[in-house]
Amino acid sequence: AAKAERRGSCKGFEARLDEAVQEKNKLEKDFRQAILGGQLEVHYQPIVNLDTGAVECYEALARWRHPQRGYIAPDIFVPLAEEMGLIDQVGRFVLQSACREATSWPEEVKLSVNVSPLQFRNGNLLSTVINALSATGLRAERLELEITEAVLMEKGPRPAAIIRNLRAFGIGISLDDFGTGYSSLSYLLSYPFTKIKIDKSFVLSLQNDTNSRAVIRAVIGLGRSLGLTVAAEGIEREMERDYLRSEGCAQGQGYLFGRAMPAHLLAEPGNSLAGKRRSAA
Ligand code: C2E
Ligand code: MG
Ligand code: MG
Ligand code: MG
């Protein structure tokens, strides 16, 4: 009986596997449709100066508005786009949309855009970025690209050369999710970063984990002594903001200050750009 049962559950497993494969196929089909049908959107989350509370930057965060399933998070569809060979197309869309949007913000407010490690592979990233800037008229100094350590693990001299070229144009380079990868000190010294973003997992565990405090304090000290802007993500509580500020962290991002929202809501009363938007050119 035990044997039969095992076979039974095995069959159940295969059925479930089959279902998962079909589900994935459907998602891929839907995603192709999403790109063609304009279902991708870019939302914006404020990054504030922790001393003054002023918005200094907005991070562009991609969203997929699925016609039946509602918003699908980038943690789902960015890996999908990478697998399907569509990440360059998605990246171009996000850059173009976000750069265009940012031209209507006050000149001192910057834009940051996430870049997938795969966008470094085919060598088009530099021209994609330069095209987006020239098509929209956004000054290069107002753009920051967020990369993760995975980019730096790519073999060969390519990422280093691309990053140096981007910097030469005046574009900022942020090391995102800092502390979650290998966080090798040599990375920090070998690439011309302008900002470190402390990963939200450290901020989340600030309250009850003295190790997180130690890591945060060390990273802030390290970043500052290298002349980099230090930002922290995932700030949800005043206590977290206060601690980070007191340790000298320059910028903060998190639900305490605002969630990512569609561009047209940034200028709504009570939101960060209220009364400050420049008329579109
Ligand atoms: P990320 O770049 O580290 O972005 C921060 C993520 O933390 C965002 O999730 C944001 O909504 C979320 N977050 C912000 N404040 C808080 C908070 O106070 N608490 C919590 N729990 N979460 C907070 P989101 O928008 O789901 O994006 C997830 C990841 O997807 C991003 O992580 C980024 O790696 C990737 N991503 C988003 N847009 C793009 C894109 O256009 N291109 C690429 N390649 N990746 C993208
Ligand atoms: Mg980011
Ligand atoms: Mg991050
Ligand atoms: Mg992340």
TrEMBL record:
Signal peptide: none annotated. It comes from the Bacteria. Residues 24-274 form the EAL domain. This is Diguanylate cyclase. It comes from Novosphingobium endophyticum. The lineage of its organism: Bacteria, Pseudomonadati, Pseudomonadota, Alphaproteobacteria, Sphingomonadales.
